[in-house]
Design goal:
5-stranded parallel beta sheet, alpha/beta, Rossmann fold, 16% strand
Length: 167
């Protein structure tokens, strides 16, 4: 007898990135543009990020049909500030997947690994992310992607995501 994977009666997932998708990081880019980069200051300033209206609106509308979860390259040590920031913006409650404090793999690898894990027993309706490399890899893996292009791109942040595995 072949075991059939039981379809979940839970709603599909809408997976949202934070930095550059829901949170405007422009005010803290200066910490990445210096040498050496000041990661502690960069992450400490995240609590003051203004929301990105387009991303917030998409998360709120997605919550009508999906369970919203958050997938970020922020390190685990930022969890408390991140939870408070999401609540302050009126964003839907949802599980937050964060990078281990010592994990320096590129964001596209860590995020795709988590997406595949989530997809084992849940439908992923959409991934919303601003990182083009994350989006490309997710699309190649068969996920539906919305590219968050509503914030100004930051070369320093892009280098940090891919080269240093920091966010």
């Amino acid at each position: 007898m072949v075991a059939v994977k039981e379809q979940s009666s839970r709603p599909p997932l809408a997976v949202f990135d934070l930095d550059g998708t829901l949170a405007d990081t422009a005010h803290r880019q200066r910490f990445l543009e210096r040498s050496p980069r000041d990661w502690d200051a960069f992450f400490a300033a995240a609590a003051q990020d203004p929301p990105l209206a387009e991303g917030v609106a998409l998360a709120l509308s997605s919550a009508r049909e999906c369970e919203v979860v958050y997938l970020t390259g922020r390190p685990e040590r930022c969890r408390r500030d991140t939870v408070a920031w999401l609540a302050a913006q009126g964003l839907p409650e949802g599980r937050i997947w964060m990078r281990r404090n010592d994990d320096r793999r590129p964001a596209r690898r860590t995020k795709l690994e988590i997406l595949r894990r989530l997809a084992r027993d849940r439908e992923i309706r959409v991934l919303v992310d601003d990182d083009e490399l994350v989006c490309e890899d997710a699309e190649r893996a068969g996920f539906r992607v919305v590219r968050a292009r509503w914030a100004d791109a930051s070369p320093a942040l892009r280098d940090a995501q891919e080269g240093e595995g920091r966010t």
